[in-house]
Amino acid sequence: MKEKKIYKPCDLIIYGALGDLSRRKLLISLYRLENANLIEPNTRIIGVDRHEGDNAGFIAIVLKNLREFLNDKIEDTVWQRFSARLTYLKIDLTQRDQYQPLKTVLNPQTHIAVNYFAVSPVLFKNICQGLSHSGVLTAESRMVMEKPIGHDLESCKEINDAVAKVFSEEQVFRIDHYLGKETVLNLLALRFANSIFTTNWDHNTIDHIQITVAEEVGIEGRWDYFDKTGQLRDMLQNHLLQILTFIAMEPPVNLEAKNIRNEKIKVLEALRPITLSNVEEKTVRGQYSAGFLKGRAVPGYLEEEGANVESTTESFVALRVDIDNWRWAGVPFYLRTGKRLTNKRTEIVIYFKQLPHNIFNDSFRDLPPNKLTIHLQPNEGVDVQILNKVPGIDENIKLQKTKLDLSFSEAFKKSRIFGGYEKLVLEAMRGNPTLFLSREEIEQAWIWVDSIQDAWQHLNDTPKHYQAGSWGPVASVALLARDGRAWEE
Ligand code: BG6
Predict the structure, then answer these.
(1) Does the CB atom of residue 234 touch ligand 1 within 6 A?
(2) Which pLDDT band, with edges at 50, 70 and 90, does 147 fall under?
(3) Is the CB of 182 under 6 A from ligand 1?
(4) CA 111 to ligand 1 center in whole angstroms
(5) Is the previous residue joined to 251 through a cis bond, with omega within 30 degrees of 0?
(6) What pTM value is reported for the model?
(7) How far apart are the first and last CA of the chain?
(8) Are residues 114 and 194 in the same domain?
(9) CB of 34 closer than 6 A to ligand 1?
């Protein structure tokens, strides 16, 4: 057993402390960590933004946010502890002379500076220059950044290069919030701690794999960002490819970041390119039109506030992905993700191969395959579909599909399931890079996605329409039907 690690206190500096990401996610997650007594007692949180303000004003804003976005009750003692950590600093991030006050606030002898860039990537370069100019950085300092890290390989490299001028790769923590989700991490445990899965995880036993990340939400006031981005770049380039690498990678020698990352990169390198020659057969793009969600009328993509009515940006994408390596030869991975779908559902379904011969033809003409479903959200859990004899003394053996069902909330009643951000912010403060993306990984993902984006651009084609509240365009059903398969509904 490892000894419990002692972590040094941090100065967590949030650039963009009054912005959306901080208000909705970061500060809420930090409060929850406080509530669970997981923040080092001397750690401080320094909110940086361009608006005029002082500590008392910042503390009042944070309290207001907690009231708005935290679903639990705010405990008085927890809030006292939490608010005592908060400091505010006004900096116009584009002005490098304004970073000087950080020098008086930070305490590099005793605290590790964790610089969280919770702002638009257009400011990343400015912040790096400002920090470098102010002389506050040390070899121990860290920086945390989030997607979008570019919108293609070139812009991603530009950001990475600007950051690399000031921070070494070991100091950089790139977030994909899906890697903080409990069930994504559980994939490692499921695959590498259970022999029934480790020995049945390749082309010999698996027929195909489906990954669905369905969202109920639409554009949520982010038309400008989303329209330039689209669902392929917003969701697939990062979250779905990350899930895919966890399912497809070879066992790492241990849980060290470099070993896990190396295995993930090998998967990304083995993705068969989608180019103009096969893009029509392998991809489906969709855009939602008006429809109904849970009985409520919702507008179409082109009718959202601020919409450009000529936009051909996709809000849905489905792909057939092939991985050209020994383990996965001939096993397609079908990925789909979209906005305004029937309900929020993120799941992975592993379809095992059908048995070659059926001796139970009274029950099924063809035996349904075993299926392992990993429910990422909501209702985290894992289930396996098996065939079981229906109890009874009939002369014929009658089979029925049943489920071995493991719901996390039922099985682990005493353990709290933390949100992705809580886990990741804590890991960044602890300096554990395992759940963060390396530069190589993210650039490799862009290489593959850029090829699809280029092919789409060359096709004289527009996204297929689907009604809000449905499961996406009919063409996405055809994508699997061509291979004699169907989406899990
Ligand atoms: C973000 C995307 O990365 O993930 C959003 O930018 C998307 O468009 C969100 O809605 C989904 O995250 P989650 O955790 O709700 O599945």
Answers:
(1) yes
(2) confident
(3) no
(4) 32
(5) no
(6) 0.94
(7) 43
(8) no
(9) no
State the chain's mean pLDDT as an integer.
Answer: 93
What's the token pair of residue 428? 């960044």
Under a CB-based contact definition with an 8 Å cutoff, are residues 235 and 363 in contact?
no
Same domain flag for 189 and 132: no
pLDDT at 2: 63
* CATH number of the domain to which 383 belongs: 3.30.360.10
Ligand 1 pocket, residue 217 CB under 6 Å = yes
For the chain, helix, strand, coil in percent to 5 are 40, 20, 40
Q: pLDDT band at 52, cuts 50/70/90?
A: very high
Number of domains, the chain: 2
**Separation of CA 177 and ligand 1 centre (Å):** 9
Q: Are residues 185 and 64 in the same domain?
A: no
Contact call for residues 13 and 115 (beta carbons, < 8 A): yes
Give the Cα separation of 52 and 338 in Å (integer).
Answer: 39
Residue from 246, 197, 193 nearest 372 by CA: 197
Q: What is the pLDDT of residues 5-41, one digit of tens each?
A: 788 999 999 999 999 889 989 999 999 999 999 999 9
Please confirm, yes or no, whether 458 is among the known catalytic residues. Answer: no
Ligand 1 atom nearest 217 alpha carbon: 10
Centre of ligand 1 to C-alpha 186, Å, is: 20
Residue 389 lies in a domain: yes
Q: Is the CB of 146 under 6 A from ligand 1?
A: no
Region 288-292 average pLDDT: 97
Tell me the residue range of the domain where 445 lies. Answer: 179-481
CATH assignment at residue 58: 3.40.50.720
Round to whole Å and give the CA distance between 178 and 7: 25
Q: Report the alpha-carbon distance of residue 149 to residue 161 in Å, rounded.
A: 12
Report, as an integer, the average pLDDT of 64-86: 93
Cβ proximity of 34 and 81 under 8 Å: yes
Q: Distance, CA 161 to ligand 1 centroid (Å)?
A: 26
Pocket test for ligand 1, best of 177, 219, 229, 376 (most atoms within 8 A of CB): 177
Residue 152: which pLDDT band, with cuts at 50, 70 and 90? Answer: very high
Query: Is 111 in the same domain as 243?
Result: no
Shared domain for 88 and 133, answered yes or no, is: yes
Query: pLDDT at position 406, please?
Result: 84
pLDDT at 408 over 70: yes
**132 CA to centre of ligand 1 in angstroms:** 32
pLDDT, residue 392, reads: 86
- The pair of structure tokens assigned to 285 is 């793009």
Catalytic residue among 133, 239, 357, 465: 239
Report if residue 278 sits inside a domain: yes
> Can you state the angle between helices 153-164 and 124-134, rounded to 10 degrees?
10
Average pLDDT of the residues in 373-402 = 89
Query: Is residue 3 predicted with pLDDT exceeding 80?
Result: no
